[in-house]
Amino acid sequence: MPTQTAESQSKITPEQALLFLKEGNDRFKNGQLRKREYTSQIQQTAAGQFPFACIVSCIDSRVPTSLIFDQGIGSIKSAKVAGNIINEDILGSLEFACNYAGAKIVVVLGHTSCGAIMGACDKVELGNLTSLLSKINPALLSTTEPKDPEKRTSKNLEFVNAVARKNVEVMVEQVRTYSNVLRSLEETEKIKIIGAMYDISTGAVEFLNETMN
Hints:
By secondary structure, the chain is an alpha/beta fold. Helix content is 45%, strand content 13%. It has ten helices and five strands; from the N terminus they run αααβαβαβαααααββ. The protein has helices at residues 6-10, 14-29, 38-45, 65-68, 88-100, 115-121, 129-134, 137-142, 157-178, 180-187; strands spanning 53-57, 76-80, 105-111, 192-198, 205-208. The chain has a five-stranded mixed β-sheet with strand order 2-1-3-4-5, with helices on both faces. The two termini are 28 Å apart. 38% of the residues are buried. The mean pLDDT is 93.
């Protein structure tokens, strides 16, 4: 995909934006990344940016957002925070990305074997991390299986991944609940808000509940 311009961005629909991300991830996991002239893209984007997508993902070093969607400079606005949690600052960033910079899709991207999720499962307390991990508690409590407390820890990777998935769903709903701007843009079909899970062992991204608003 060439560097986005104001004209090309204006022609992208939310559905097409999702397709671009899917196609990019297919190229990534199949080892068919596009060759890019980054020096040229730096020059082309110096005067302005016209991204088509905004991704909220975890700070985990194994989740390089632009790379796993095979996108170049200027195509994706990326917000990274442990546990891909939503807060006031992230919401403000998303509102800027969509309402001002023109992004057509918001993706909350969780991933397997997430350290932040593991910390929440184990009730880790450490400085400001304590408050951050508390935001994952709704997903932790909503994941009702297994019921055995000894199996509801970071040692049970199946449980960790189930909580991570539920956390994505919770955060997607928080985007809609706490941002009138983004909810309105979605209701008028100007953007799509969706959750996704990245598998760190395969490189594959699974998009969740694509048809739901």
